[in-house]
Amino acid sequence: MASLSRALRVAAACPRRDLGLRALTSRAGPTTEKSVPYQRTLKEAQGPSAVARGPSRPLPSTANVVVIGGGSLGCQTLYHLAKLGVSGTVLLERERLTSGTTWHTAGLLWQLRPSDVEVELLAHTRRVVSRDLEEETGLHTGWIQNGGLFIASNQQRLDEYKRLMSLGKAYGVESHVLSPAETKALYPLMNVDDLYGTLYVPQDGTMDPAGTCTALSRAAAARGAQVIENCPVSGIRVRTDDFGVRRVAAVETEHGTIQTPCVVNCAGVWAGAVGRMAGVKVPLVAMHHAYVVTERIEGIQNMPNVRDHDASVYLRLQGDALSVGGYETNPIFWEEVSDKFAFGLFDLDWDVFSPHIEGAVNRVPVLEKTGVKSTVCGPESFTPDHKPLMGEAPELRGFYLGCGFNSAGMMLGGGCGQELAHWIVHGRPEKDMYGYDIRRFHPLLTDHRRWIRERSHESYAKNYSVVFPHDEPLAGRNMRTDPLHEELLSQGCVFQERQGWERPGWFTPQGTAPVLQYDYYGAYGHQAHGDHAYGRLLGDEYTFDFPPHHNVIKKECLACRGAAAVFNMSYFGKFYLVGLDARKAADWLFSADVSRPPGSTVYTCMLNHRGGTESDLTVSRLAPSPQASALAPAFEAPLTAALSQICFPTLQLPAPTPWFLREPSHL
């Protein structure tokens, strides 16, 4: 059996293939099926196609909700719809449950992420998989709690982990920052010579996709939901109501039609094809994503899973072996997605995968002489910002997305399935889920092939990068510019990207800093840009402290103050909240306590009636004065707040409804 070190030498010795467009894509179909490192899967035995035998049960003529896709998200959404009491729910799977992408997933669950929303979503997934499903069905989901270990090989990464630990404390996630010596005691086979420390989360673990989806479908069926396998969808019927609004009418299959007002697209890599049936744009791409499974390693039993972000590699405990995978800068795109693909895999490209071997051998040196038991290379779907696509499609009422999970469908499935079900039943979500809502992308971009491809590639390549608050994408830039763009650029404007627009961020005194055409980080035969002005300025912003451009803005503000300049702040949308009940209204509207002394300013969120975030803004408490000023009008009644709306566009609030009682319509 070939060892990892031998595989690395072979990859290095082989002549490099042309890394142009042909190397970037895969047009060949999947190879013959290979085993994956799970004790059981939901694959059919060799024989006639399951689809050819027809659906596993008769189709109902009507349904309240039809979920398309029997992977992690489809099963989780069906389960949570059933738990909310929704009757008449149906899941349609074209093959068998878990076919496509879920069946070969690594099944890792890391509880700590840079986003507090994701921490909550992950916590719910863990509760469902580790406790709820087994209590409801008596089936073991395959949950194994062996812990997780994040590796910090520089001080900046260790600082990020300390922030994650603080975030975890707020949400009840136990975690510990360990020294290199403590890490060695916990994981004796690990090389700790180059470590600054690690973050250990004892209650992380792994899931078995087949066991989890089986338990989810069993629990949903017990509440009246139907799971129909071997039933591919062939079309989505759409109607236009009396007001000219397009709505879902039915789901068509070769075996019958189901009348329904609601469809949930959980088709993973095939979500784009399902979207096209309904005229809905789904901005995702399919890529090869791989890991290898080693032979038996003495002493590896019961070790935690490892994520070495700086080496872009993970090590998943697989009984007495390890699964080794990661995110490379030159992933292979799967352009022509086959609708016949079910439980197949691709041949592993060792040229692409070899950096992960180097990182794994450096972290666990015993791997250098350990054999490779099997390779697992399958398709996964990825999005332009590495976040899932969720929510109702703006083009079609009743058509919901639950796809594009960037190889984290098992990990985020429970939390996102719950939120998506709540979204379908109750409307807008309770949590601030705007970061996952499909509406976060401008409609002009959701079908722009180059933008989707570039941004998805960069998000994939930077998946393990430190998440800095002032980072900006380099991919998919200069898509939308205003008439003053070139003039501002010539004056030293450093642009930021929002909704595809190049918007002014700040001005550098060091000359022009244009955003260059995306170079794919030097992959696929592209020449990397190297040192360039925009990249250099962006690199300086990679800090959790105040970035350098704050000092530039500070000097501008001081210069303006010295010149006694007066600015009209109405550009930012300023509103005044006045009256006897102003304080009560402020307490209802804002998430922070704004009852401060006059002269105080608070940065906070404005909430809707469900507690969801509508906007972020600053609230200033002003003292009454009969004299008008540049900051406030004259007034004698108690004035609680002056609001400076800092998001765009400015809020439009038609009279006579009081603005603080209306839900803004611009989001």
Automatic annotation (TrEMBL):
GO biological process: sarcosine catabolic process
Domain GCVT N-terminal: 484-624
Lineage, broadest ranks: Eukaryota, Metazoa, Chordata, Craniata, Vertebrata
UniProt GO cellular component terms: mitochondrial matrix
PANTHER family: SARCOSINE DEHYDROGENASE, MITOCHONDRIAL, SARCOSINE DEHYDROGENASE-RELATED
Transmembrane segment boundaries: none
Gene3D superfamilies: Aminomethyltransferase beta-barrel domains, D-Amino Acid Oxidase, subunit A, domain 2, FAD/NAD(P)-binding domain, Probable tRNA modification gtpase trme, domain 1
Organism: Leptonychotes weddellii (Weddell seal)
Domain called FAD dependent oxidoreductase: residue spans: 65-423
Listed name of the protein: Sarcosine dehydrogenase, mitochondrial isoform X3
FAD dependent oxidoreductase central domain boundaries: 426-481
Highest rank taxon of the organism: Eukaryota
